[in-house]
Write a structure and sequence with these properties.
The structure is a single chain. The chain is built from eight helices and ten strands. The longest helix is centred in the first third of the chain and has 18 residues. The radius of gyration is 17 Å and the shape is globular. It binds 2-amino-2-deoxy-6-O-phosphono-alpha-D-glucopyranose. 2-amino-2-deoxy-6-O-phosphono-alpha-D-glucopyranose (GLP) binds next to helix 5.
């Protein structure tokens, strides 16, 4: 696991966008694995700017997202589908039919997960995956547990994740307490992974990630086993 430290969130986001731009320019029909949360927003803004200035072309790019709340309608402005349209897809020249997010309104969640896993395989696997990290070390919605799922599955959300993500929901909105998420195996099949860690509130989990042994009680530590992972962090997250 390679660790790159940046002074500011801005610099970290630019470096992450450069890694994506390089991938897109090497392979213009890449399959990009995308994430939600506040951390990748800066990178998405940079990618939109690069697209506007003609530095990168998304017309043949395909994307698969890590996770989605369940149940939730894709039109709901709290859904991850809405988030992706709003923060990236509406601002770049991507064909929305080539963008995939697990369907939070599927009647049969298990069937949706099975289909999602098949879809990723059919696309030829993920070339580059971006990840954020939860305060409890979760990746996607793979929450700390005694054992973890390999592939895309439905999962309950822990209280700490519900509390951390509640900031996006207004008082009269009911926050789903479950989600559909890629499993650790799905994520591990990505050829390259970048993990973004930003802000003081992530300092403790960053320390855990770097110093702790591999354990399902901090799913992010499993990334140490992947042959091509780069962690990009800002100084607020990694301290000295
Ligand atoms: C959610 C997402 C994760 C994300 C995490 C951190 O739980 N499912 O994929 O990494 O939030 O979010 P943030 O970047 O807002 O701290």
């Amino acid at each position: 696991m390679k660790i790159l430290k940046f002074s500011t969130y801005e610099e970290m986001s630019s470096a992450a966008a450069d890694i994506f731009a390089k991938q897109i320019n090497i392979k213009n029909d890449s399959v990009l694995g995308l994430a939600t949360g506040s951390t990748p927003i800066g990178m998405y803004q940079k990618l939109a700017e690069m697209n506007k200035s003609g530095m990168i072309d998304f017309s043949k790019i395909k994307t698969v997202n890590l996770d989605e709340y369940y149940p939730i309608s894709p039109e709901n402005n709290q859904s991850y589908r809405y988030f992706m349209n709003d923060n990236l897809f509406n601002h770049i020249n991507i064909d929305k039919d080539n963008t995939y997010v697990p369907n939070g309104s599927a009647e049969d969640a298990d069937e949706e997960c099975r289909k999602y896993e098949e879809l990723i395989k059919k696309l030829g696997g993920i070339d580059l995956q971006v990840l954020g990290i939860g305060h409890n070390g979760h990746i996607g919605f793979n929450e700390p547990e005694e054992s973890l799922y390999l592939y895309t599955h439905k999962t309950g959300l822990t209280e700490s994740t519900m509390a951390a993500n509640a900031r996006f929901f207004s008082e009269d909105e009911v926050m789903p307490n479950a989600a559909l998420t890629m499993g650790m195996g799905t994520i591990f099949n990505a050829k390259k992974i970048i993990l973004l860690v930003s802000g003081k509130s992530k300092r403790e989990v960053f320390k855990q990630l770097v110093t702790d042994r591999i354990s399902t009680s901090c799913p992010a530590t499993l990334l140490k086993l992947h042959p091509n992972v780069t962690v990009l962090c800002d100084s607020e997250a990694c301290g000295e």
